[in-house]
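Sample 3 of the quickstart, ligand alpha-D-galactopyranose:
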Amino acid sequence: MKAKIHEEFQKKFTGSGDIYASAGRINLIGEHTDYNGSFVFPGAIDKCIMAEIRKNGTDKVRALSLDINEYVEFGLREEDAPKQAWARYIFGVCREIQKRGGVIGGFDTAFAGNVPLGAGMSSSAALESCFAFALNDMWSLGIDKFELAKIGQATEHNYCGVNCGIMDQFASVFGKKGNLMRLDCRSLEYQYFPFNPKGYKLVLVDSRVKHQLAGSPYNDRRNSCERAAKAIGVEFLRDATMEQLNAVKGKISDEDYMRAEYVIGETKRVLDVCEALEKGDYETVGARMYETHWGMSKLYEVSCEELDFLATLAKECGVTGCRIMGGGFGGCTINLVKDNLYDAFIAKAKEAFNAKYGHYPQIYDVVISDGAHKE
Ligand code: GLA
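Result:
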């Protein structure tokens, strides 16, 4: 990928720049908990967005997306926003840096990636984090890593229409090879957890049903949670109990009740998983993953037929844990599979899914890797 990017950079702009990369992510458990002030358990993966970048001495950004095969130029003022969705991520990062007092100039860039789009592995966070990290480094802005993650998140809010939490950008910036991270999304305290479950593999089964979070029910879910928290009288649903939720049952809609019930359950599940991991108890980890899946499907309603099919199939095959991963509405399941079951499960998942939906799912073995960096 690096060689290809460099070749195209040279063709378009001549000469060379510096190369930066930032990763997509997985999340073991803790879904739709980040914007509820609760816990998440992500890790960066070996799929990234990579960009060659060089200051160009003007006040314009000249950007070439190799994957989309499109070239766009834009200025750095608010009114210069490009129309292309992919370019808005880069523009948003520039603007959010400027809003925080960072002085940057124009640059030339060619970039590409191998984080599958719309698969729930956070390709957009990888793109934002790559540019936030790079611009901070190139202009020596001294922005700390948390602020870099927040710049990516604010880009989603202000330029891309998704009111996301902090998980994806955090994972992309802070990722560390071989480690998952438990992040408390309220205090932003985090802890690295070396993750090497002996006798098990983590594998993603991508339904290739594309999800699209922008302008989507994602924001509706967040609004439901905020209404429920307000009715209960807590800042975040993380602080609510089922007793408190039941006490306001008649005052909120059934839908908001279901959403809140899921979040309260999910907060407890992440803590259970942390405890289980410390004991090496992967059966409990897996059981909680299935509970998350069906909570996301029945209460939070962010699954789809294909992902429910994959979760049911995983259970039938004896897979230890399986659940939809990421924001939902498509994408992949994350599976915790015993080594000796792996081949049979993958073969069965491919065959049965293809027989039902007419295409094969894509399989990705998870390799937990480093986050944003200069190559
Ligand atoms: C998307 C968002 C994250 C998080 C997940 C669900 O990936 O970007 O902030 O809310 O969905 O856990």
